[in-house]
Amino acid sequence: MSLEKCQNITSLNLNLEGNNFGADEAKNIGMSLEKCQNITSLNLYLMGNNFGADGAKNIGMSLEKCQNITSLSLYLCEIETQNKWVWRIN
């Protein structure tokens, strides 16, 4: 939630690897990023969490609202849904 107070930042490297975050935390991260509309460059490291498909979707939908991002590096782990690996972004 502290990220919301940094609305004027233009470049962000955010490393949240290995925190065992779930879908709710993913939603909070996404909502915070939405409020930082001046970000043009974002490196987001989210490996080692348990967002699941819903959490990853929430982050993706939030990033769509960040219209000023011109450079994005998004590091997610593989997501398992019903015992099938469905996608991977690095």
How would you describe what is shown here?
- The protein is α/β, with parallel strands linked by helices.
- The protein has one domain.
- The protein has helices at 23-34, 52-64; strands at residues 11-15, 41-45, 71-75, 79-81, 84-87.
- The strands form two sheets. The protein has a three-stranded parallel beta sheet, with no helix packed on it.
- Helix 1 runs parallel beside helix 2.
- The model is unreliable at 83-90 (pLDDT under 50).
- GO terms for molecular function: kinase activity.
Question: What distance separates the N and C termini?
Answer: 25 Å
- The proportion of strand residues reads 15-25%
* Percentage of residues assigned to helices: 25-40%
Q: How many separate helices? A: 2
Major beta-sheet overview:
3 strands, parallel
Oligomer: single chain
Query: Unreliable runs, pLDDT <50, ≥5 residues?
Result: 83-90
* Record field, number of beta strands: 5
**Which word captures the global form?**
globular
Query: What is the domain total for the residues?
Result: 1
Report the average pLDDT across residues: 84
Q: Taking strands numbered 1, 2, ... along the chain, how are they ordered across the largest sheet?
A: 1-2-3
